[in-house]
Amino acid sequence: MEQVTGDTMYVERIGPKDAQPRGARHGATPISDADHSRRKLSMVDYVVPADIIDKPDKLKLLIDPQSVYAQNQTFSLNRQIDDVIIAALWGAAYGGHAGATTINNYDAGECRLINSDGTIEAAGSDNDDDTETPLTIAKLLNAKQLLDDAEIDADRQRYFLTNPYNLNQLLNTTEVKSSDYNTVKALAQGMIDTFMGFKFIMSTRLPNHTTDTGAVRSFAFAQDSIVLAVAEEPTVDVSVRNDLCNSIQVFSTLSIGATRVEGPAVVQMLLDAA
Question: Among the four 67, 197, 200, 253, which has the fewest Cβ within 10 Å?
Answer without folding.
Answer: 67
